[in-house]
Amino acid sequence: MIYECHPANPNARAIQKAIEALERGELIAYATDTVYGLGCDVQSKSAMERALQLKGYSKYHALSFLCADLSDISNYAKIETPVYKMMKRCIPGPFTFILPATRQVPKLLLTKQKTVGVRVPAHPVCRDLLKAFGRPILSTSVTDRDGDPMLDPNEIVHHWGEAIAVILDSGVLKSDTSTIVDCTDPDNPVVLREGRGDVSLIY
């Protein structure tokens, strides 16, 4: 089901429908500050498995945690003081941070290095969704079967049909990626991928 959800005035009813789908263990799609995200509840293993199947992934750690704010992140990742100061400059925004995981992260989501990827997107719809849901969403980008980002909600409906229970339509997005920052060494963050996020904020 597709629901219009304009970023200038997010539709509370549409966001509630997305939350209900998450709570049922279903997949949803929503705009972020880069591309459309494919998300599920961190507490639903079956939903995680379906998200990976849609993407053609075999590893759970391909999914990132979308969080409403820094306090949410601290439940799932260890944030040292230098990293905290840097993240305050960068979020909300188009950055993905690789951080050491806390014990609250399910083992199947950990990399061999026991790290997780976390994001605090700036898009109003995504932020309202995260705040209303009350806990992080596991997320990856919505792509077609060739791995290309899908930026038009109507194409997402046509391509994936009922595999995605709720799509929050915030219009056609411009293709972009997040800047990925490895923060496992708190004194020496490393940019793994330069995307939309301004790297001058990191150093």
Write a concise keyword list for the protein shown above.
29% helix; globular; 22% strand; 10 strands; 6 helices; 203 residues; DHBP synthase; alpha/beta
Describe this structure in words.
It is globular, with a radius of gyration of 16 Å. It has one domain: DHBP synthase, CATH 3.90.870.10. Helix 1 (12-23) crosses helix 5 (124-133). The longest helix has 12 residues, at 12-23. The protein contains six helices and ten strands. It has 203 residues and is an alpha/beta fold. A hairpin with a 4-residue loop joins strand 2 (28-31) and strand 3 (36-41). It starts with a strand and ends in a 10-residue tail after the last strand. The mean pLDDT is 93. Strands 1-8-2-3-7-4-6-5-9-10 form a ten-stranded mixed β-sheet, sandwiched between helices.
